[in-house]
Specification:
The complex is a heterodimer of chains A (about 725) and B (about 500). Chain A has about 725 residues and is an alpha/beta fold. Chain A is built from 25 helices and 26 strands. Chain A has four domains: about 15-250, Rossmann fold (3-Layer(aba) Sandwich), CATH 3.40.50.970; about 255-380, Rossmann fold; about 420-595, Rossmann fold, CATH 3.40.50.970; about 610-705, Alpha-Beta Plaits (2-Layer Sandwich). Chain B is α/β, with parallel strands linked by helices. The chains are: A alpha/beta (about 725), B alpha/beta (about 500).
């Protein structure tokens, strides 16, 4: 089960023609795929496109009715390779992933797919993880489109436009025999909007048809001499066909305006930001009427030279609003205009920054600066901005520097009850014993261990590549060993071969920790081959240990993360054993978010049915805690926090467990393992106690309260006896 | 606000939710979309959850436009996907510092209604500090009042908890109650109801917050910071000790001295309180020797009380078995009727702690021995003691009873030696360099915690005291001690401290 249940959203996939779809754009895309008669869908989860995979996984019934094949691919490379079905058959296929990391992984298959060309429409929905909220390095998908010749759609963030571009994308792909990418930025993916639905369409040509009548063509194989012919085909037939389709179907939009001397060209995805900036400058209304002529590129690759020369004709200057670097579009426009001998100046990077997200403030500043040079009269002081409930009067912005000091940073961290926390605490404790060791980190929730308070991990090279990225540091001459981290998601993605298999083959004297929480947790809790649930359409319960031993690892220890002593002993042994080969520690502990979703309803039902249920939580005695916060430095649990010291003599705040505690037990384990302090207590709350529980409780309480009264009397006596 | 002159509407209403991952900002956003649609508005919401959904700071952004305000050609407004500085009507922050972050982004201007929950969720850097790393929210509050059109602040978290709900419901209530949005109460209530889960408790929290926000106004008094529950020991102070404090301790330090005396009685007995006052008296006497204030007496009154009530196993057991403690645990855990609560303690005494509780001779001998020490070591290790069971309670009860023998224990003699050494140094320094003496007094702050933490603190303390020998008389001596003390609290590996120590 994914982090979110899409039971409700799935129903929106059934909407019929004329009904209104309301919801997230990434779900609208899912509906659009069904409306376009897609035959098969695959992909690999990752923000911001995880929900597309999640909703399809929950929509098996609808997909079966339409005869659509769906699977969660092993990796983005697997997903891209799946599009091979469209090479020889008129099957529409769609895959999705997070870009550019997923595109990197997929790129082997993508190059071959693009070279072979497609018969059926092949569409890749890529979530452009760029700017605020991104979790990866900042690069552009655009480069991949250009190098492999894949068309790139960047629709303006309007649900209807996005939905329409999905269908157009398939048509464009078929018209030009070229795979197409449809890129959606983070905010656009999560944008909540609406569109008028069409009926779902069962594919005209079914997968069964393909199986019954297998086709092949030597011209579609990636071997010479076909590859040379394919390259020619790309530029001689496919490219012109694409340009023709784009022009004839008006995929890009041109808007007139009275300030004819200038114009703004933008990536479709930035349209709303540009429009709001113009509106704030008094140069447009909120409905899209602009005084400056606009050219909106819903297709950012290939560009259409004729459209550019038409738009630029007679203008003094164009502003290109293109996010990210290098500035591929701006470079091309310069070339188009030069070749056509059109003298309009091309302005882009300069007034607009070369790198970084194009936020409203950035775009406004860029447009202002462009206008100041090329149309100063348009920049007349505008009336104060107002919304129905407020008027905007310019006022100096805040002393931001001052606030930056006052407002603490909030890096992401592991959730309350996360089973990875005790293992990273164990690593911290072991490093106290052995001194610091080199740690190669990986991608997943465990990446957060590189941040405070664990500060563990020196590099992150890619999903499942934790072990591989420690390869050069795996051949020590005795002495210290390095540790690599890998998640179970990354393990199945590629880590089993690139990391574990490789360390066996190359005889690494290394330690790899595989964090086995049962899900691809960081992307929203999707199932993976080692998930322990009973899966309906897939086969889980494939133990990691079996796979690890299967590729030849001899030294394997499986530990439960909550038993910190186990983890500490395993780490200690792995770092010191005389055994020279690769050492793998599998650190098990189910993802708490998913566990809670699985277990909480069951416990609630049991409690309602009158069954005995024990809930645990932790607490701290405020008079025993001295306010050193060692426990926090070793754990970092969100529910382990601080509060003002109730003791009038002490000044430092004390540790405190708030109500979000799930009673995972890591506090007690840490206090024990690190010899910390006796302030922690665990409270077991028994709902529907048994008669025996109640009897025992009554007896104990009577005795304890008697002793407590005696003790209190003794305290009073001491206070009254000055002679003592 | 519900009757807007529609003809005047040319721009969308803009709203930003500043929240932390996991707080339900997305739920508020979904509710608002439903509220707006019910009220006849077009609505668009966006967010950037990403990694921020794991406890990081994140933003949700919404825009609304009335259907009735659409132009004749039925063209639709183009909604922005992110807030623009200076163009936000309402900002609601789920925590006060997030209101600060919104201001930092320029989202709060003279047209903005800013609503914030006053409670703090401490960031990891604040929590993991070895002393007090809490950032000060008063600066944010002051700027919010100055910058926003209207600033509403109350503790939405507490309000939600009091109603058995979560903060998202209270946030929606605050938005409704603020009157900043043109939607009617029914629309909100309906949105919560149709969203299904936990509708009853959500509605209660919504209602409470709605009223709180409606009653609050721009001129509202500063929010009352919830008074921290003070667990000051209520031990009674014998008259002759009260008299001694009045007669001998400077007025400004008397309150602390009384707290100290209470602590000593609670910790040991009246005689121990007398010893405390004897020691404090001698420091108070130094105040007349060329000093301006009573900083030294204050610092020593505090530090001496804490030090003399060092946390040995006897003290921990003593605190764990009291009636008041049982009550506090129940209050914190909050069982409902019919539920039973069992309490388990996590103890891990080391050989040092066990020997510290033995008589000086025996304890010292075991620590220095081989076989007996190994034998005792076998008794150490993680121990879970159920204080709600009779056996577990009796163990601690017996241990707490050792209080009467405390003066004979090894730990007691060690701590007293340290205390006397510290006081002697203060006594020697004060007449020549009062500021330095105060700094040394303040160093007691470093000696706290248990086990290794206590050992590390003691090492830092000793290192600073050793450093100060030979630097007396230098004008920068006090500054140096202060720098060393701050460095000792900068990290728990002594890195900063040794850097400052070696920078002579």
């Amino acid at each position: 089960m994914a982090e979110r249940s899409f039971a409700r959203e799935v129903q929106t996939l059934r909407l019929r023609a004329g009904e209104v779809f309301e919801g997230e754009a990434i779900l609208a895309v899912t509906k659009a795929l069904l409306q376009a008669g897609v035959s098969y869908v695959g992909g690999y989860q990752g923000a911001p496109v995880s929900h597309l995979m999640d909703v399809l996984a929950d929509a098996r019934e609808i997909l079966d009715d339409l005869g659509v094949h769906f699977e969660s691919s092993a990796s983005e490379a697997g997903a891209a390779a799946m599009l091979a079905a469209s090479v020889n058959y008129p099957l529409r296929g769609a895959v999705t992933w997070k870009s550019t990391v997923g595109t990197n992984v997929a790129s082997d298959a993508l190059s071959n797919l693009a070279s072979a060309g497609v018969l059926g429409g092949a569409l890749m929905i890529v979530g452009e993880d760029y700017g605020e909220g991104a979790s990866i390095m900042q690069e552009r998908t655009h480069a991949f489109a250009m190098k492999s010749q894949i068309w790139l759609l960047d629709p303006r963030p309007d649900t209807s436009t996005i939905v329409d571009m999905v269908e157009r994308g398939f048509e464009l792909s078929e018209a030009s025999q070229t795979p197409v990418m449809l890129m959606l930025r983070i905010r656009a993916c999560h944008m909540h909007g609406s569109f008028v639905a069409k009926n779902n369409v069962a594919p005209k040509f079914s997968i069964q048809d393909a199986l019954e009548n297998p086709q092949r063509s030597a011209a579609r194989i990636i071997l010479p001499p076909a590859t040379y012919a394919q390259e020619q085909e790309k530029v001689v037939t496919r490219w012109p066909a694409a340009v023709r389709f784009i022009v004839e179907n008006h995929l890009n939009e041109m808007r007139a305006g009275d300030l004819e001397d200038i114009g703004i060209v933008m990536q479709g995805g930035l349209y709303n930001t540009v429009m709001r900036s113009l509106e704030m400058l008094g140069l447009a209304d909120v409905f899209g009427k602009s005084r400056i002529p606009l050219y909106v590129l819903n297709v950012t690759y290939p560009l259409v030279p004729e459209e550019f020369t038409r738009f630029a004709a007679g203008k003094k200057a164009l502003l290109i609003v293109e996010e990210g670097q290098p500035e591929y579009i701006e470079q091309s426009v310069n070339q188009f205009l030069r070749k056509a001998d059109i003298q309009a100046r091309v302005v882009g990077k300069g007034p607009l920054p070369m790198a970084g997200e194009y936020t409203g403030a950035v775009v406004s500043a860029g447009i202002k600066s462009f206008l100041a040079e090329w149309a100063a009269s348009a920049l007349a002081p505008s009336a104060p901005l107002s919304s129905p409930i407020g008027v905007f009067t310019e006022r100096p912005l805040l002393p931001i520097e001052e606030l930056r000091k006052a407002v603490p940073m909030r890096p992401p961290g592991l959730c309350t009850g996360c089973p990875e926390r005790p293992f990273f605490s164990s690593m911290k404790i072991v490093q106290k014993e052995f001194g610091a060791v080199h740690v190669s980190a990986d991608i997943g929730c465990h990446s957060f261990a590189t941040l405070a308070p664990f500060n563990t991990g020196a590099s992150i090279m890619g999903y499942g590549l934790g072990s591989a990225s420690g390869a050069a540091l795996s051949g020590g001459q005795g002495g210290k060993r390095s540790i690599s981290i890998m998640g179970d998601g990354g393990f199945w993605h590629n880590g089993l071969t690139s990391g574990i298999g490789n360390s066996v083959f190359n005889k690494h004297d290394s330690v790899t920790v595989i964090v086995d929480n049962g899900y691809a947790a960081a992307t929203g809790g999707q199932y993976i081959p080692s998930s322990r649930a009973d899966l309906k359409n897939r086969k889980g319960r494939n133990p990691i240990e079996k796979a690890v031993r299967g590729v030849g690892v001899e030294w394997v220890r499986t530990v439960h993360t909550y038993k910190m002593q186990e983890g500490i002993s395993a780490l200690r042994e792995a770092l010191t054993t005389a055994y020279k080969g690769p050492k793998v520690i599998i650190a098990e502990g189910e993802c708490e978010l998913n566990r809670k979703r699985r277990v909480a309803p069951v416990l609630k039902r049991m409690a309602q049915e009158g069954k005995r249920v024990v809930r645990q939580r932790f607490g701290i005695d405020p008079d025993v805690c001295t306010g050193d916060h060692s426990c926090i430095r070793l754990s970092g649990c969100p529910s382990l926090t601080i509060k003002a010291n109730p003791d009038p003599l002490r000044r430092d705040p004390i540790a405190h467990v708030d109500n979000s505690c799930v009673g995972c037990g890591v506090c007690g384990e840490v206090a024990h393992a690190a010899v910390l302090c006796p302030s922690f207590y665990r409270a077991d709350v028994i709902t529907n106690p048994s008669a025996w529980d109640r009897l025992k409780f009554r007896f104990r309480t009577t005795v304890i309260e008697f002793l407590q009264r005696r003790f209190d009397r003794r305290l009073a006596r001491i206070a009254a006896e000055p002679s003592l | 606000m519900s009757a807007l002159p529609i003809a005047a509407i040319t721009r969308p209403i803009t709203l930003t939710i500043a929240a932390l991952g996991g707080q339900g900002g997305g739920v508020v956003s979904d509710w608002l979309i439903h509220v707006a649609r019910r009220a006849g508005y077009l609505a668009q919401a966006t967010s950037v959850p990403g990694v921020a959904q794991r406890t990081g700071a994140t933003i949700y952004y919404l825009e609304f436009f009335p259907l009735a305000g659409l132009p004749a050609d039925k063209s639709r407004p183009i909604f922005a996907l992110m807030p623009n500085p200076g163009d936000v009507d309402v900002v609601i922050a789920s925590e006060i510092m997030e209101a600060g972050r919104a201001m930092q982004r320029g989202l709060v201007t003279a047209r903005t209604t800013l609503i914030a929950s006053s409670h703090r969720i401490y960031a990891i850097q604040e929590k993991s500090h070895m002393g007090d790393g809490r950032a000060d929210s008063s600066q944010v509050r002051a700027l919010a009042r100055e910058q926003a059109k209207r600033y509403i602040e109350f503790d939405m978290q507490a309000m939600a908890e009091a109603n058995g709900s979560v903060i998202s419901a209270a946030m929606l209530g605050a938005l409704c109650g603020s009157g900043a949005l043109p939607f009617a109460v029914e629309h909100y209530v309906e949105a919560i109801r149709t969203s299904g889960i936990e509708a009853a408790s959500s509605t209660r929290a919504f209602e409470a917050a709605r009223r709180a926000a409606a009653e609050s106004s721009a001129a509202a008094a500063p929010p009352t910071v919830s008074p921290t529950e003070r667990t000051a020991t209520r031990a009674f102070i014998p008259a002759f000790l009260k008299e001694r404090i009045r007669a001998r301790i400077p007025a400004a330090a008397q309150d602390l001295a009384r707290q100290g005396v209470r602590r000593m009685i609670d910790y040991q007995d009246v005689a121990y309180a007398s010893l405390y006052l004897d020691r404090l008296d001698s420091v108070a006497a130094l105040e007349h020797v060329g000093s301006a204030g009573v900083a030294l007496t204050e610092s020593v009154a505090r530090g001496l009380a804490l030090w003399m009530s060092f946390e040995d196993t006897i003290r921990v057991a003593d605190l764990k078995i009291r009636t008041a403690r049982s009550k506090r645990v129940l209050q914190e855990v909050g069982p409902s009727t019919g539920q039973l609560v069992q309490v388990t303690e996590f103890m891990k005494p080391r050989v040092e702690e066990i020997c510290g509780t033995l008589p000086v001779g025996l304890g010292t001998w075991i620590l220095r021995s081989k076989t007996p020490r190994r034998w005792i070591t076998r008794l150490t290790g993680g121990r879970q003691i159920a204080t709600s069971s009779i056996g577990g309670f009796l163990q601690l009860y017996w241990l707490a009873g050792l209080r009467r023998w405390r003066r004979k224990t090894l730990r007691y003699s060690q701590e007293q030696m340290h205390i006397v050494h510290w006081l002697q140094l203060i006594g020697r320094l004060a007449p020549e360099d009062y500021a330095l003496a105060v700094e040394i007094a303040d160093c007691q702050q470093l000696v706290k915690g248990y086990g290794e933490t206590h050992e590390r603190g003691t090492l830092s303390f000793d290192a600073i005291l050793a450093d100060v020998q030979g630097r007396q008389g230098r004008p920068d001596a006090a500054d140096r001690v202060r720098a060393l003390r701050v460095a000792a609290l900068a990290d728990d590996q002594g890195i900063a401290l040794s850097r400052v120590l070696t920078a002579a």
